[in-house]
Amino acid sequence: MKREFIVLLWLMAVLPCFSVGNMTIRPGQIWKDNRGIHINAHGGGVINHNGTYYWYGEHKADTTSSAMVGVTCYSSKNLVDWVYEGVALPVVDEEGHDIERGCILERPKVIYNKVTGRFVMWFHLELKGRGYAEARYGVAVSDTPVGPFKFLRSGRVNPGLWPSDMSQASRAAADTLDAGNYKEWWTPAWREAIVNGLFLKRDMHAHDGHPAGQMARDMTLYVDSDDCAYHIYSSEDNLTLHVAELTADYTAHTGRYVRVAPGGMNEAPAIFRKDGKYWMITSGCTGWEPNEARMFSADNILGPWTQHPNPCVGPGAGKTFGGQSTYVLPVGDGFVFMADIWRPGHPSDARYVWLPIEFEHGLPVVRWRDEWTPVEYGFK
Question: Could you tell me the CA-to-CA distances from 18 to 23, 26, 83, 188, 194 in Å, in that order?
Fold first, then answer.
């Protein structure tokens, strides 16, 4: 009896990390880190570097969605158990600094540059006290995955440059558009003007106290198989998505970019590639409230992009299970869809919806599951 008790104690000591409960992801539930604290990494993304996953996201306070801490980082070997690695990019107390404490810093994503050996972080930035008027990107770099990241700059995208997918005739037509003729929004004429480049032209140059360049709000990053990287963001007052190529060191734009679904009101882009085809899941623009997910595909990341039906299936699919897309994580030959259930009244209590992506009839499907384990899908 004593021997059996000793064996039982030994099993309890060595096997907890293999328990079914510990290896289960429960979408929408509290997800605790190694300290027993709900993971605070919202609107973020995950990379796999040398066999370790690193999750970066917005640190949310209890009462405000403004950035009071910065971008946090967690690490994991199995996608379930996460270790708090600290603040990868802290906000600063210097008055007037771009990332001053109290700014809006959202949707941080990190990619690794094989040539420079640096980790590059991009995020959506709004200056303190300016609401959502600035619509900037921010970029920072680090020599290690956990940071600290060094802030480089913020700004708007590709000032003075037309999209590469616009013909000369389309550019000439857009150049004739006058915002003064479209003061009333949401009319058929205004919508047509947006599609034709009304806001695109407006933001080509500095105006109304704003710097030149395209607006950049909800965003993600994508590194292609040829190691070229792209910045995908919601622009033109959240009415049109842009896909912009990054320089070889991933810290700036080359000037080459395209528009996706002009006037379609898409945000929260999450992109992945399977069997040579690019897929992008987005959401509509309904503030903090969830809506039906959208999906697009393309044979080239620079388009053209084709829209498909909502990929979500199951209870709550019509509102993306109460969440909003933030990232698609490649894991081996599969993919994990990541979304956030926002709680603006209690931001730090926002929840995560992670679900495996399946393919049916050639189309991605995100099916609701109360719980699932990465192992059952072959994720390692």
Answer: 7, 16, 17, 58, 54
Closest CA to 307 of 274, 287, 282: 282
Strand order from edge to edge, sheet including 104-113: 104-113, 118-126, 136-142, 150-155
Q: Report whether pLDDT(33) > 50.
A: yes
Structure-block tokens of residue 162 = 């037309």
Tens of pLDDT along 349-377? 999 999 999 999 999 999 999 999 998 87
Q: What is the pLDDT of residues 44-100, one digit of tens each?
A: 999 999 999 999 999 999 999 999 999 999 999 999 999 999 999 999 999 999 999
Q: Domain residues for 375?
A: 266-380
Bridge partners (DSSP) listed for residue 360: 363
Query: What is the mean pLDDT of the segment spanning 252-269?
Result: 98
Q: Is 151 exposed, middle or buried, given 0-12, 13-18 or 19+ CB atoms closer than 10 A?
A: buried
Cis upstream peptide for 304 (omega within 30°): yes
Is residue 59 situated within a structural domain? no
Closest CA to 80 of 27, 22, 13, 41: 22
**Tally of structural domains, the chain:** 1
Identify which of 238, 235, 244 has the alpha carbon closest to the alpha carbon of residue 271.
244
Rounded Cα distance between 315 and 244, Å, is 35
Could you list the beta-strand ranges (E) of 184-276: 219-223, 229-235, 240-246, 253-260, 267-274
Residue 347 lies in a domain: yes
CA distance from start to end of the chain: 38
Confidence of residue 22 (pLDDT cuts 50, 70, 90): low
Write down the pTM of the prediction: 0.93
Residue 241 lies in a domain: no
Tally of CB atoms within 10 A around 333:
9
d(CA 371, CA 74): 21
Domain CATH for 375 = 2.115.10.20
